[in-house]
TrEMBL record:
Transmembrane parts of this sequence: 27-46, 53-74, 80-103, 132-151, 171-192, 204-226, 232-259
Annotated keywords: Membrane, Transmembrane, Transmembrane helix
Domain DUF7702, chain residue ranges per copy: 40-226
InterPro entries from the UniProt entry: DUF7702
Annotated Pfam families: DUF7702 (PF24800)
Organism listed in the record: Blyttiomyces helicus
Protein name: DUF7702 domain-containing protein
Length: 365
């Protein structure tokens, strides 16, 4: 790699020189590779929504656009500072999507899987200050965009030096954020692995692997900041680590390691349905049933063996027509018992059970 030669007061503009005189074939090939990843992540999203796959898809779109712009620059007889700026912005700032995808995976694992059964000060602090990392990544992305814009439009050596400093600072922030994710995921994985709780440390070690791969790319970015890269080393040390991280998250079942537990999703869906006051429709809810087995966040609230559905009673008396429905009183008492988080005591509650009779406000559950 070599620095841009500045011998005159102004810099003669040539976009291909800024990019290290790249060739067209690798640009087309990698645009196709990222397009393939976009299809894979899109297929994952069609099967089950995941923020991880959404972020990965956005990153693939950015990279496809960057390589398309690069191909235009290479294949054109004329050069445009606008195209060069677009290419440099998408290449420099686009990597924040990879870091955000890894951090999103880490925080989801800590919040949904680790915290309910194995919470400690480290896990609680990581969840509490998770937005801080997003702010840091946004700041580094803004610096990358500012540096890339200034670098492509620099007309004096001083302007170019200032642009290089911004790019280098952004790369250092990326590097520091990745090191923080590596330390956090390693410590939590070791803590989970040595705990007696039935919790797998595999998701944490996946993040450790991805952060180590990303460190290769970010170290190279810090070294070549403000310099003209060599095409072969740029593809090997900058693009291939991104491909490796995408392969990890595109692998079937990896994103599910960081997804919200299905028991919790079912519980939230059932509570929303109950709170809406609508008629419970098991087919429409996709088989959603209130969980019988306990969950770390939701203790058992239902009798393991619910009573059989009773037959509808006879016609009500005149007094019963104006009284509060018995089912509603039972439901209120049962909800008070559920809210208190005490052990379910059928005898003390005088046989208070979740409703088994259909009611306009509280359908059969």
């Amino acid at each position: 790699m070599s620095s841009i030669n500045l011998t005159n007061a102004s810099i003669p503009f040539d976009a291909r020189v800024y990019l290290g005189n790249p060739t067209l074939t690798p640009a087309i090939a990698f645009a196709g590779i990222y397009s393939l990843f976009l299809i894979i992540f899109g297929a994952h999203l069609l099967r089950r929504f995941s923020r991880i796959h959404v972020i990965a898809s956005i990153f693939c779109v950015i990279r496809i656009g960057a390589f398309a712009v690069r191909g235009i620059i290479i294949n054109s007889d004329w050069t445009s500072s606008g195209l060069l700026t677009a290419d440099m912005i998408m290449m420099a700032a686009g990597f924040v999507a990879i870091l955000d995808m890894m951090y999103q995976s880490l925080t989801q694992w800590l919040e949904f899987r680790v915290a309910p059964v194995h919470s400690n000060d480290l896990v609680s602090s990581a969840i509490r200050f998770k937005r801080l990392m997003h702010i840091v990544l946004v700041i580094s992305a803004v610096l990358s965009i500012m540096g890339a814009t200034a670098q492509s439009s620099a007309t004096t050596p001083d302007d170019l030096d200032s642009a290089k400093d911004r790019v280098r600072i952004a790369a250092l922030i990326y590097l520091g954020a990745t090191l923080a994710m590596l330390a956090l995921s390693t410590m939590v994985s070791l803590s989970v692995g040595g705990a007696s709780a039935p919790l797998s440390a595999r998701p944490g070690w996946v993040i450790v692997l991805c952060t180590i791969i990303s460190l290769v790319r970010l170290t190279y970015a810090v070294i070549v900041a403000g310099k003209t890269p060599v095409e072969l080393s740029w593809y090997c040390l900058s693009i291939m680590p991104e491909i490796c991280v995408l392969i990890v998250f595109a692998w079937p079942g990896v994103a599910e390691l960081y997804a919200k537990p299905r028991e919790e999703m079912r519980m939230q869906s059932w509570e929303l349905e109950k709170g809406a006051g609508g008629v419970y429709n098991d087919a429409a809810m996709g088989g959603v049933q209130p969980p019988v087995q306990g969950h770390p966040r939701y203790p058992p609230m239902y009798a393991p063996n619910p009573p059989p559905v009773n037959q509808c009673p006879g016609p009500p008396t005149v007094a019963e027509l104006y009284a509060k429905p018995q089912q509603e009183m039972m439901m209120q008492a049962w909800e008070a018992e559920k809210g208190s988080r005490v052990a379910y005591n059928d005898a003390a509650m005088r046989a208070v059970q979740p409703l088994t009779l259909a009611h306009p406000r509280y359908p059969h559950v």
